[in-house]
Design goal:
Layout lengths: L3 H14 L3 H24 L3 H5 L3 H15 L1
Length: 71
């Protein structure tokens, strides 16, 4: 029971070594996550606060007003 982290690690390493279809599926999952979190963020979620405001105080005031107005 003392060496359970190593046993767990070896379990997953051996499992991934013996995969054929699983490796392809994990590659597809990795590519989709990359597209969702890095590529789409660049085009659909621009950094509006850094383009409109210079100081942190201006940014904080803008965000505070937006939160209060939506309430």
């Amino acid at each position: 029971m003392k060496n359970w982290p190593y046993t767990l690690f070896r379990f997953y390493v051996d499992g991934f070594k013996n995969m054929k279809l699983g490796k392809t599926l994990w590659l597809i999952i990795g590519i989709k996550l990359f597209i969702m979190f890095f590529i789409l963020k660049l085009f659909f979620f621009p950094d509006i606060l850094n383009t409109k405001f210079k100081t942190e105080a201006q940014k904080a005031d803008f965000v505070g007003k937006q939160l209060i107005d939506r309430k």
